[in-house]
Amino acid sequence: MQALQVTSLSPDLSGCELIVAPMPVRKTGEVLVRVRAASLNFPDLLMTRGDYQFKPQPPFIAGMELAGEVVEADEDSGFAIGERVMGGAKTGSMAGFASVPARNLKRAPDALSFSQAAALGAAYTTAYTALIEQGGMEAGQWVLVHGASGGVALAAVDLAKALGARVIAASGSPGKLERIAGLYAPDAVIHSQGRFREQVADITGGTLCDLVCDPVGGDIFDESSRCVTFGGKLLVVGFAGGRIAEIATNIPLIKGFSVVGIRAGEYARRFPDRGKRIADEVSRLADEGLIVPAIDRILPLSQWREGFEAMAGRELVGKLVFKPES
């Protein structure tokens, strides 16, 4: 089968190569899936460099997330041959076939294509964990989402709008803001460079934001601490901007807000019942057509370098999906 293998860690993708790999051997408790689509996530890029908190030893097949059809499964797995499924593991999805623990798979919503299903799970469960599970978001609240062209952040814009929040989408690229506005019609968009607190104050009528979702860090985090209303929450989703920010504790004390770290995967592992409920709710919203992942582009897996470089160059608005070739 075709597979994208990380043979060695490198800062420039030189350690990655497309190979012909043997079919995975399914173990008890796993489901063999024919991969129809594999989505690219930022951690996939970081793992090629050894910069992610999970550090698999090369060689390994890249890819955290897939959608496809069941080829083989245990009789008591709950999955039928030919059933459309989505899910994945920390590695192994960017290949023609993958053997995935049954607990990591769900039925793919009928309303979604394979590409959309592959793009749903990680982004939307992270967004749901951040906004609703740990952020306590309610309809009518103001939510500021930074880096809103990225997979998780764009999912947060879609999810927050679907659940009745008032959303400000922020990006460092004016061109991306136009595309974001066309996709999900947030209540406002802002160019998040320099001092943007006054823009937020003007948009919200001076109340500022109940929730700020920040996957960027650095200067964005610093200014966001000025954009949270009293009793609000500043949700730390990542540090895509490169600099891990620091905050003086008197700021959240005086302003009465919380800084909340979001690790959706770890949250689901520590609280499996809550994790299942979150995943089920995301699937329900997708089944009902209330949320739809935005796909920036779909590429054959043979064009993996173009896809990874597009992510590294911050070209994407939404998710990029690879399709393994037969």
Can you offer a commentary on this structure?
The longest helix is centred in the middle third of the chain and has 21 residues, at 114-134. Strands 3, 5, 6, 7, 8, 15 and 16 form a 7-stranded mixed beta sheet that branches. The protein has helices at 42-49, 114-134, 151-162, 174-184, 197-204, 218-224, 250-255, 264-270, 272-287, 304-312, and strands at residues 2-6, 16-20, 30-40, 60-61, 65-73, 84-87, 97-101, 105-107, 142-145, 166-171, 188-191, 209-214, 228-236, 258-261, 295-300, 319-323. The chain is built from 10 helices and 16 strands. The protein has 2 domains: 2-112 and 293-323, Alpha-Beta Complex (Quinone Oxidoreductase, Chain A, domain 1), CATH 3.90.180.10; 124-264, Rossmann fold (3-Layer(aba) Sandwich). With 326 residues, it is of the alpha/beta class. The radius of gyration is 20 Å and the shape is globular. Helix 2 crosses helix 3 (151-162) and helix 2 packs across helix 9 (272-287). Strand 12, helix 6 and strand 13 (228-236) form a beta-alpha-beta unit. It comes from Pontixanthobacter gangjinensis. Residues 11-322 form the Enoyl reductase (ER) domain. InterPro entries: ADH-like_C (IPR013149), ADH-like_N (IPR013154), ER (IPR020843), GroES-like_sf (IPR011032), NAD(P)-bd_dom_sf (IPR036291), Zn-ADH-like_protein (IPR051397). This is Zinc-binding dehydrogenase. GO terms for molecular function: oxidoreductase activity.
